[in-house]
């Protein structure tokens, strides 16, 4: 089951014709990923400032299919495809109504903010992420 959330396309994220700036999509994606973690009770503030862990994206592949415009409601579906020792593979599709407007595949790696080396997912975070792990990939 994917994590789902909707966000309105903001005026400040569009050009003068009302079409979304594609770099703004990355800001939305960060917000959506942060909300997914919060949905199982783990805030990024806790991860970063209390546990001293980071969540850098190490690979990303974007496909833009149709433009979004000011006032559109973007419906995000985040699919957890794989949870490794320290990695997390996500695939997100973004729709306006029934139309997919862009997709992204990304790999996030959990790291220490002190030495920037990868760390294994803590049990509570792994358990939360597993809520969204696609059944075909569940181990």
Structural summary, described in words:
Helix content is 24%, strand content 36%. By secondary structure, the chain is of the alpha+beta class. The protein has a five-stranded antiparallel β-sheet with strand order 1-4-5-6-3. The protein has a two-stranded antiparallel sheet with strand order 2-7. The protein is globular and about 45 Å long.
Number of helices: 3
- Biggest sheet descriptor: 5 strands, antiparallel
Instruction: Tell me the strand percentage band.
Output: 35-45%
Strand order of the largest sheet: 1-4-5-6-3
**Helix percentage:** 10-25%
pLDDT averaged residue by residue: 95
**From the alpha-carbon coordinates, what is the Rg to the nearest angstrom?**
16 Å
End-to-end distance: 15 Å
Structural class: alpha+beta
Order of helices and strands: EHHEEEEEEH
Low-confidence stretches: none
What's the short version?
This protein has 139 residues and is of the alpha+beta class. The chain contains three helices and seven strands, in the order βααββββββα.
Which helices and strands occur, and which strands form pairs?
Elements: E1 3-8, H1 22-39, H2 44-50, E2 53-54, E3 57-64, E4 73-83, E5 87-96, E6 99-109, E7 111-112, H3 123-130
Antiparallel strand pairs: 1-4, 2-7, 3-6, 4-5, 5-6
Question: What brief labels describe this structure?
Answer:
two-stranded antiparallel sheet, 139 residues, 3 helices, globular
